Amino acid sequence: MESAVANSVLGMIPQSMATYWAKDGIDLQLSLNQTLTKSLLKVAAGKLDSALVPPLAFDALKKGVGPYKKMGNKATQLASNVRTLFGVPGSLFQAVTWADDDIKNWSDAAGKRVFIGPPSSAANKQIMALATAGGLTEGSYDPIKAPWGAATQSFQDGQFDVYVGAFGFASQSLAELSLSHKIRILSLASENQEPPAELGLQIAIIPPNTYPGQVNESPAITWQTLMMMAVHKDFSEETAYQLTKTYFENRAAVAKTNAMLTQLPTIDHLAGVNAPLHPGALRYFKEIGVSVPDNLLPQ
User: Fold this and answer.
1) What is the pTM for the complete model shown?
2) Which NCBIfam families is this protein grouped with (predicted)?
3) What are 184's strand-pairing partners?
4) Alpha carbon separation from 277 to 4, 236, 241, 291 (Å, rounded)
């Protein structure tokens, strides 16, 4: 299984679940710090058993666009090999500026440098859509792309003015950043600014005082990513069933171990999922009475 950086929500979920999966007979070999658009491609090609991937990336693979544009029809063919087990809440996009600069809201970032995630990342489109919803016209700012792992230090070094990081709620790394220099989190104007349906996002709220050096006096409204556990269509049905069953039977317990994982039990079983379910996962959902839309039924 592959996932994102170790201290991210997506890295912590499989790390935290590994013990429970092991108790139920699943020996997990986990590789972190991966580019998830590439992980999806490995799953589709049968070179990797499973990965936490963005629904937006799967949509791009089906259409042969974005990071898969050069693959042409081969991308669409590979997408037909992908199945999913369940949806998981991902990170919150938290647009950070220094409290003492002149950027108080999204529109103030016109003409500034805005970090939008790693090159060829599904996050690029999501973050740019968030900026647009905040009132920052596309083309009015300089979009900066760099690896997630280097972003915090690059922001501290002044390489960009707005750091739109993918953090878990109450992220320790963001708390530490705010202690070194007070921060402001940019907000959308209203909780009614729903993200475009195809982007695999949902509304999220960051209250004041979430971080020790946060100066926001009102809640910051942003968007949260939704991810899905992807497997190859030929993945073992019994293993798919057990991975899914163990996850849902233990996600509440895992959520109590870390503040960044508190949202694990709160989202729907299929939130964000846009690829057909694996038969093993479908068997579990039928057992517990979860209704599965026709478009997610195994093909």
Assistant:
1) 0.80
2) TRAP_TAXI
3) 97
4) 22, 13, 11, 12
Q: Which residue ranges form the domains of the chain, and what is each CATH number?
A: 9-89+226-296 (3.40.190.10), 90-225 (3.40.190.10)
Dihedral angle, C-alpha 80, 83, 87, 92, nearest 10 °: -50
At residue 263, does pLDDT exceed 90? Answer: no
* Residue 162 to residue 113: CA distance in whole angstroms: 6
- Sorted by sequence, the CB contacts under 8 Å of residue 70 that are 6+ apart come out as none
Q: Per DSSP, what are the bridge partners of residue 114?
A: 143, 162
Higher per-residue pLDDT: 241 or 225: 241
What values do phi and psi take at 147, rounded to 5?
-60, 145
Rounded-to-integer distance, Cα 28 and Cα 159, Å: 38
Q: How confident is the model at residue 83 (pLDDT cuts 50, 70, 90)?
A: very high
Note whether 38 and 118 are within 8 A (CB).
Answer: no
| Cα–Cα distance measured from residue 116 to residue 128, given in angstroms and rounded to the nearest whole number | 7
- CB–CB of 54/229 below 8 Å? no
